[in-house]
Amino acid sequence: MGRAFMAVGIGARMINCTNLPSSHVSDSRSEDFSRCAWSLFMLDKFHGSSFRTSPAFPNNIMPPTAPYPSAPPPQAPSGPLSGTEISGRRNSLTPDLDDNGIDFYCLRLTAIWASVMAYLKTIKHGNVEEEPWTINSAYQHIASDMFQLETSYPSIHRFKAVRFYDRSSSELEEHRDYWAPWISSQIVYHSVRAVVNHPFLHLRRVNDRQRLRSPSFLQHATDQAILHSSWIARILQLFMEKKFLLFDPFIRISCVRGCHNSSFLRFSWDPELVTAASEHFKGCKTFLKMQATQHLHLRYVVSAPLQK
Amino acid sequence: MQFPPMLRYSFLAFDYTFFDDALFSQDRAQAVEYYKSSASKLLFPQTAYPTVSLDVMRTFCLVSLNEIEGW
Predict the structure, then answer these.
(1) What is the number of structural domains in chain B?
(2) Which of A204, A259, B17, B20 meets the CB 3.0–4.6 Å disulfide criterion with B70?
(3) Does residue A210 sit in the same domain as residue A265?
(4) Domain range spanning residue B18?
(5) Contacts A–B by Cβ distance under 8 A
(6) How many helices (DSSP H) and strands (DSSP E) are in chain A?
(7) pLDDT value for A86
(8) Residue B67 and residue A36: Cβ atoms within 8 Å?
């Protein structure tokens, strides 16, 4: 992994230290530069070359060129809308005039995911973080970023509006340039929520001492963890049914983190929750086992911790 | 289109990692390692230059992804 840290770290910093496409560069070459810059941005944010030192891409700063315009959502299949779908569209607070394309939202979520990983690193290294409910805590910053993203996320990309569940496999394949980042954004969104609210983070002891915790905060975090880990399982189940092949390596990393919630919740006192979490965990394991046949770095994940 | 050696090696390393064919199954790990190190030897000296080329950036992308995803 040291070599990965070095390659991603140097590549990402070179992007920041260099003048990216200027006027003398042709459009097609400029687009190639942009793609490379964003690829290194994602590699840096997901793999975390910046976690140990000062970040290669500081928070809220992205590569200078805009991402290549992404595909619009394909036409939804015809059919009556359900009651919740109609009211959801009518009450939409995010008009689609400001739609920046699904790739843009996917990249923003990736940046938030990096904040979550940095938060986990802080905890892992034994640094005592501020209480999560305090105003300047990392937990609240991440929550704020997520709410900010949600307010600008156009309704046409939302789960009910795109009607992923109604699409045929051939249709998904035909519009892969839209569906691949859409699935990625859905998984990363729910993984961020699931991971920062993981009960273990908030219940664990620090320096062998039990900490005082707000019961309503703990209840809120646990509810969020249950909700979003079940969404991850639901989405994974959907695209296993659709037989949609995934090539994005980072979806699997997010899935592993998100699925850990289901694993943890299997040991709850609530028998209903135990049944649901066991079912979700089983679905996640099936997905990861399928992925591990092609993506070798997952072999350890499916052969060791998730076997338990 | 130009295809300099460092980019070619990094592409081959990535390709061998995921190319599921019996022909390459026996010595795959060694082949991947050979192409990865060949690409890295050519890539890292490029970081000494003040400007970065598209090929260098592309090679960084492939080498990084290969280190994360591969053997």
Answers:
(1) 1
(2) B17
(3) yes
(4) 5-69
(5) 68
(6) 13, 0
(7) 45
(8) no
For A201-245, the pLDDT digits (tens) are 888 776 666 777 888 999 999 999 999 999 998 988 888 888 888
Same domain membership, residue A107 and residue A13: no
Domain end position, chosen among A41, A68, A95:
A68
**Residue A164 maps to a domain:** yes
Asked if B67 and A14 come within 8 Å (Cβ–Cβ), the reply is: no
pTM of the model: 0.83
B69 close contact with A: CB closer than 8 A: yes
- Distance, in angstroms, between B53 CA and closest chain A CA? 9
Q: Which of A18, A38, A68 is the last residue of a domain?
A: A68
Mutant choice from B33, B46, B61, B66 vs A, greatest count of A C-beta within 10 A: B61
Looking at the domain assignment, is residue A77 inside a domain?
A: no
Q: Exposure of A67 by Cβ count < 10 A (0-12 exposed, 13-18 middle, 19+ buried)?
A: buried
d(CA A241, CA A127) in angstroms, rounded, equals 43
Residue recorded with tokens 């809220």: A60
Q: What's the pLDDT score for residue A24?
A: 46
Q: Which domain holds residue A18?
A: 1-68
- Taking the C-alpha atoms of residue A254 and residue A257, their distance in angstroms, rounded to an integer, is 5
Neighbours of A161 (CB within 10 A): 18
Contact B40, B63 (CB under 8 A): yes
- Hey, is the C-beta of B37 within 8 angstroms of any chain A C-beta? no
Measured between beta carbons, the chain B residues lying within 8 angstroms of A29 are 54
Q: Are residues A156 and A57 in the same domain?
A: no
Residue A246 belongs to some domain of the structure: yes
Residues of A in Cβ contact (< 8 Å) with B71: 296
Please tell me whether residues A220 and A114 are part of one structural domain: yes
Query: Does residue A132 fall inside a structural domain?
Result: yes
pLDDT at A64 over 60: no
Chain A contact for B47 (CB, 8 A cutoff): yes
Do A7 and A142 reside in the same domain of the chain?
no
Asked whether residue A170 falls in the same domain as residue A279, the answer is: yes
The per-residue pLDDT for range A96-111, each reduced to its tens digit, is 556 778 888 888 898 8
Contact at 8 Å (CB) between A186 and A159?
A: yes
Q: Do B44 and A10 touch (CB under 8 A)?
A: yes
Which of A220, A19, A169, A188 lies closest to A117, judged by CA? A188
First to last CA, chain B: 30
Q: Same structural domain for residues A182 and A288?
A: yes
Asked if the Cβ–Cβ distance from B61 to A18 is below 8 Å, we say: no
